[in-house]
Amino acid sequence: MEIEIYEAESPLPINRAYSVSIIIKSFKGRRDVEAHLFRPQWDSAEEKDVDWAKLLGSPMDPSLPADPLSTRKVIMESFTVEERDQLVLYLSEHYDDRLTALWSAPLEFPAPMGLPALSDVDEDKSIGFIRFEKIPHFHLPFPVHALYDLSRHRPLVEEAESLDS
Questions:
Q1: Which of 25, 34, 18, 32 is nearest to 127 (CA)?
Q2: Coil, helix or strand for 63?
Q3: Phi first, then psi: what are they for 123, rounded to 5°?
Q4: Can you tell me the distance from the alpha carbon of 156 to that of 159, in angstroms, rounded to the nearest whole number?
Q5: Spatial CA neighbour of 36 closest among 115, 162, 150, 145
Q6: What is the pLDDT of residues 101-156, one digit of tens each?
Q7: Judging by DSSP bridges, how do beta strands 99-106 and 2-5 pair with one another?
Q8: By the 8 A CB rule, do 78 and 19 touch?
Q9: pTM over cut 0.85
Q10: Number of Cβ atoms within 10 Å of the Cβ of 76
């Protein structure tokens, strides 16, 4: 598994500022499925202690209404450096042979208003969540979910058929 960890080039305005994504070699009949990891819940006291005026920027698209609460959720869903490191170690120990890549990068601040929170995405036949805390060997002190969209990845069967042709 290839691991790329990007550190902040300058001090971040908040500790909770790291995204983590993975590529799963084979998942639900698809190859190289990209999944974005996030914290599905957090302590409301932590959210109240944040100076949101310093973290939220202009809307992504000035012609559309931008919900600042959604962007706040994006920040709260992200990981601290310590959580990121724990998560990378857990994934390396348990999924090294099942993952092609793992990468993490800091969020950019000020974060544009209107970013969609991963926890707000509705599941359907191709979009879903991996709920790591439901896996018996999961031992991290915080829950982790991963959002995936199977429609963005070719089925393994199609790929195998095209190789036979």
A1: 34
A2: coil
A3: -75, 145
A4: 5
A5: 145
A6: 999 999 999 999 999 999 999 999 999 999 999 999 999 999 999 999 999 988 88
A7: parallel
A8: yes
A9: yes
A10: 20
